[in-house]
């Protein structure tokens, strides 16, 4: 109990000094708990939605599970309408109804504004059924009664300011559906952001499926007392071939589980990515905690020595420091768990701005979340304090007679430096091997090992590097400030271990920023170079998230003025049998012959234009080498949903290029020859070439042609390159935002180090003030010390990160991204920003130092 009381007294006595360390723990725990609460809430939202929308048993086409060619056509896989009657007659069936659902649609209002999300939640169109009453209520108007009426979900109505009677146009591959809003339906649970429109059954069949005798699935309701599983078994015995044939049967639970699996990968990536950044914040926080307790132990050397002199054992002193760490971990973790729930709510609001709606009514805090948060926070804090605690236990009773702490162990310092050099050298060797790798898969292992070892090496060798780097920075930046600058330099060099640990915390975050900046810039530069070299088309027309380019839009594009040619590009699934007898399911790029002009692909055999001849195709060089294919060989191509063809390999394209790497080409006419008309997909992308000297007029004409179709975009090569740059930039900005947490914790570390350093040097500061150092000079000295520590961490981090990024780019070069570009503006901005970080971190410590009473400072022991 004496140890606990003493630790509690010391904790409360230094509560101001512990506060910043507690904030570091709080932020790290909050990020972990916030991530868990946020993803659990998303799971709850989708679980409720899938559970409410699933029928007792759902019958759907098995082809929808095994083949994605149907969605590529813009028409979902369908069942014969006669199946509804067959299902209704089955034993145990109370009722059965056919349903139509399509997500390959776009809905626009009378002003041609899209009603759904451009990215994220889908737009869903279908027919209104009794099964929909399980998840929705008609809250205004009535269900659609004919082809000119449509019902819309209430969330879409509210977000877009719609009302009854407003006109909506639904764009599908089979044509447009223009109808007025006859009703508004509200979800009984949270709608994650989907836009839902309902038509009458006949309109949904003819306009969404292109046929009046089909449904996408059948919703079956069981009779009272018949379980879902039993009903599924009975239906399997009733429907011809259902056990392993054309139909897929799912109970409500199976359908809900299947829906959950569809979003599970997205949620898992988000969850583990965010937890990874939380782990980085924890790692940075460890440096802060180690520094805090190391300095507290140093400042209490005499106190610890006196405790040892009056009978306290090493174990008791050790336990005392660990109990303080435990108290810090408990307080920071408890606050972090609460902050994590608040962070989760904030993330939910942020997702709302991105068209993914989440309700606080579904807020899910599993019992494991606070347990994980508390365990992580406490364990990390206690582990971080272990080394300072051991150091405290080694303080001898004779230390009570000294004014300063025990002298540093020079031998331990040399051992540490040796270990750091070995780790750094090993990591550097692995990074070098990364640049020499012949395959990206093997090189990635070298890269991971090199990153880990060089990071550990720099952390361990930090005190040794601090001496040299700080002296260089002092010579370049601090000498101009005269004696104050020299004092700031000496203060930073006084304890290289402390400076190294403080700089290392900032180094970790900035190393990742620099690495990702190099990789992102290199990707953009490589893609830009590849586009300049390979793409001959003037314009690129891309489809949107709602599906392929609809035939009406394609027709408008081909009729645009000042266009030399327009090229269609479709992706078609097929099973290929190579001359060596091996079968593989691949995708063929079926394009117009002008694609050979729009994309300049190098060939290792034959001419690409020949691949667009009758019954001809091309293969990639990697595929050809793997199967021993030569130009002139014949491939057996079984088109999914169509016939089998014998196609001549007229060209073998080089896979050195990253654009369309590995693509196999054939003529659209060839594909149409072996596929039914309703199985030929619309274009996924299109290209256009302007008439000579008419580029601007052609660009304007193409945009005008697509004015009615806002889901498709027309881009010239400049637009396309800028769009690529913006996409990578947005991704990097998200990563930088997540890394900001680690950088904030690192800044807190600088603040804490300076604040404790000021307390440690109280008498020294008093003496300097007594011999004439002004308050202004004192504050400047502390600010300069902070700046040099921040710049030390920035130099290490940016240098390390550029090394990582350069090695990573060598792996990208194996995938065709061969340009290395160092984003010097970003690197310089981060370096200069680090100086401002140092100035900011020194504000409070410098202010407190300037307020010290000279006489009291001199009298302090």
Automatic annotation (TrEMBL):
Pfam families: FtsX, MacB_PCD. It is a multi-pass membrane protein. InterPro entries: ABC3_permease_C, MacB_PCD, Macrolide_Exporter_MacB. It is found in: Cell membrane. Residues 19-236, 502-694 form the MacB-like periplasmic core domain. Residues 277-397, 738-853 form the ABC3 transporter permease C-terminal domain. The chain crosses the membrane at residues 272-298, 319-345, 365-387, 414-433, 445-478, 499-519, 734-759, 784-804, 824-847. One of its GO terms (molecular function) is transmembrane transporter activity. It comes from the Bacteria. GO terms for cellular component: plasma membrane. Residues 60-81 are annotated as: Disordered. Keywords: Cell membrane, Membrane, Transmembrane, Transmembrane helix. Belongs to the ABC-4 integral membrane protein family. This is ABC transporter permease. It comes from Streptomyces agglomeratus.
